[in-house]
Design brief:
Structural class: alpha/beta
Shape: globular
Helix content: 25-40%
Number of helices: 9
Order of helices and strands: EEHEHEHEEEHEHEHEHEHEH
Distance between the termini: 12 Å
Strand order of the largest sheet: 10-9-8-5-4-3-2-11
CATH topology: TIM Barrel
CATH architecture: Alpha-Beta Barrel
Strand content: 15-25%
Length: 288
């Protein structure tokens, strides 16, 4: 793909944020409408989480294959040619739910958490924002996910929350578990992970194997846009959406995914990058 092209991903909804308080889509119709706004604004990939559909329960995740199938089918109908990227993030050793959703939806890509993190956040009063959680991704779990993805022609996207996890991607490649070229996401801004600091990007890039495709996932408020601009300038791919932030570059709160992707594409063009079309992204993935 032309180096001046940039792959733009929309992170459509995430988990745990309350749809009664924030503009996060939940139902298949809402997911499809939000995806279409992002797609029309220049996003080629939709990163998809699945939420429970019962009234009042939309802030919780689900691994029901029927729900996943309905959501992905609605997105594909609304956005012809779009690339689907499923979440697989789950705590614990039981990965049957994520695998069932992969089988039901047949995405082109899927997130593959490449290491373990104490997932922590403090409130201003020094108390935990949620009970301290171990986001456990041992090698046996990673190996099982990768084997299933490769058996079903799904490209893994290695989500890396910390520097040691970034370095582990190369170990996974040299151990023969992960195929080249790797797709790596630097998850920056989680309080117990890598900070969203632009000066970290060159250091992180130096740890990647040659040919690795990369993007940043900026978690936070309007400060993440400085990180996105640096990513674009350094040749990385771009991702935003209401899973990652509710704030536009000017600090105002977004109305949804469409406005965030519009801002991302505008910024990319300001540094001389043009969003790749779904067809270009698909061809590049298939060429791998």
């Amino acid at each position: 793909m032309d180096k001046n092209k940039v792959v733009v991903t929309c992170s459509l909804t995430g988990v745990l944020t309350n749809p009664a308080q924030h503009p996060v889509p939940v139902t298949p119709a809402e997911m499809a409408a939000s995806a279409k706004e992002a797609f029309d604004a220049g996003a080629s990939i939709m990163h998809v989480h699945f939420r429970r559909q019962e009234p009042g329960m939309g802030f919780l995740p689900t691994w029901e294959p029927e729900v996943a199938s309905a959501i992905v089918a609605a997105i594909r109908e609304a956005c012809p040619g779009v690339i689907i990227n499923n979440t697989t993030g789950v705590v614990g050793a039981d990965i049957a739910g994520p695998l069932a959703c992969l089988d039901a939806t047949r995405p082109e890509m899927a997130a593959m958490n490449a290491g373990t993190l104490n997932y922590l956040k403090l409130k201003s009063d020094g108390k935990w924002a949620w009970p301290p959680m171990l986001f456990d991704n041992p090698i046996a779990k990673i190996e099982a996910f990768l084997a299933h993805m490769y058996a079903n022609n799904i490209v893994p996207e290695c989500e890396c929350f910390d520097t040691g996890i970034v370095r582990s991607v190369g170990l996974l490649q040299r151990a023969g578990l992960l195929r080249a070229p790797a797709h790596v996401s630097f998850v920056m801004g989680v309080e117990s992970g890598m900070p969203g600091k632009t000066e970290w990007l060159p250091l992180l890039l130096a740890e990647l194997e040659p040919g690795t495709q990369w993007q940043t996932i900026g978690i936070g408020r309007e400060e993440v846009w400085k990180l996105h601009r640096a990513t674009a300038e350094l040749g990385g791919n771009l991702r935003t959406g209401v899973e990652d932030t509710f704030y536009l570059p000017d600090g105002s709160k977004t109305t949804g995914n469409g406005a965030l992707i519009e801002a991302m594409v505008k910024m990319a063009r300001e540094v001389g990058r043009e969003p790749a079309s779904p067809a270009e992204v698909r061809a590049a993935l298939q060429a791998e």
